[in-house]
Design brief:
This protein is mainly α and 285 residues long. Helices cover 74% and strands 0% of the residues.
Length: 285
């Protein structure tokens, strides 16, 4: 999960670079389309199987997971256009709290303990500190709506995770769970793109193409495959807590690759996140 958080943090930079040549929702739709073709190629050398979608009763849950996946990205990208990136990150990465609450009531054996709740709050506090400078920046008149949409995006991300853990998908191979999301989300996102006013104009600069391929193969393909494999075997709330590290790695990637500056309190923020994650994941008793 530490490695996945770093990979996802770099993806925040990749999305920013790709958006210079491909509109955001169109970008997400094309990413799901290409990843759906890549995943079988990744599974073959790894010996991962898909199983049979016609058996096991996974179809309905799989289609719902794909729809949630698509609406999550639509809400997030519209929200990002209305509010600041720092505010969007805070509301989106409230997702671990939603996961913890959902699994507490819907997944036996994944209870929200006092130590886990305290750890989540400390880690989230570190995240807020890391983006404190951006949170103080002036915002536009539609920022509240943008904040709400990013909050919805985080809740939908959490809902997808809880659905995978609490439904028949928990017994399905990780490759099949991922393919449900990619195959269902791709047409929904491609349809939503023009409806949201995006122009289907692509500027195929080498950097844009490279960043997009990183998203499709590395993120939507390999990393999501690893994520659903982990979700099927470990506590969803403990795994989700690590996602708080993703924007922290994103800040580091922005500093290293885009020359963005780091705030004075960033080191303290990282220490708080690390402490929170230790509390969430330490053995009970």
């Amino acid at each position: 999960m530490l490695l996945l958080s770093a990979v996802w943090g770099l993806n925040m930079v990749a999305v920013k670079v790709t958006s210079a040549g491909i509109p955001p929702v169109l970008q997400a739709g094309l990413r799901s389309t290409l990843a759906a073709l890549i995943v079988p190629l990744l599974c073959r050398p790894l010996g991962l199987r898909f199983g049979d979608w016609r058996r096991g009763g996974t179809l309905a849950a799989g289609v719902l997971a794909g729809a949630l996946f698509a609406v999550e990205f639509i809400a997030l990208y519209i929200g990002l256009s209305l509010t600041t990136a720092s505010r969007a990150v805070i509301f989106l990465y409230g997702a671990p709290f939603w996961v913890a609450l959902g699994t507490h009531y819907l997944v036996p054996g994944d209870r929200l303990t006092r130590a886990k709740a305290i750890g989540l709050c400390i880690a989230f506090g570190g995240l807020v500190l890391a983006f404190a400078d951006g949170l103080r920046a002036p915002v536009g008149p539609d920022a509240l709506l943008g904040d709400l949409l990013c909050l919805v995006g985080g809740a939908l991300w959490a809902a997808t995770t809880v659905l995978v853990k609490a439904s028949s998908l928990r017994r399905a191979p990780a490759a099949l769970v991922l393919q449900y999301q990619l195959i269902v989300s791709a047409p929904l996102l491609l349809l939503a793109s023009p409806l949201l006013g995006e122009a289907w104009v692509i500027d195929p600069q080498p950097l844009v193409v490279g960043a997009f391929l990183y998203q499709a193969a590395g993120i939507a393909g390999a990393s999501y495959l690893a994520w659903f494999w982990l979700v099927s075997r470990h506590s969803a709330s403990r795994l989700a807590a690590f996602s708080v590290l993703t924007p922290v790695f994103g800040v580091l990637a922005g500093a290293l690759l885009l020359g963005e500056s780091l705030g004075v309190g960033f080191l303290l923020a990282v220490m708080l996140v690390a402490l929170g994650l230790w509390l969430v994941n330490r053995p009970a008793g």
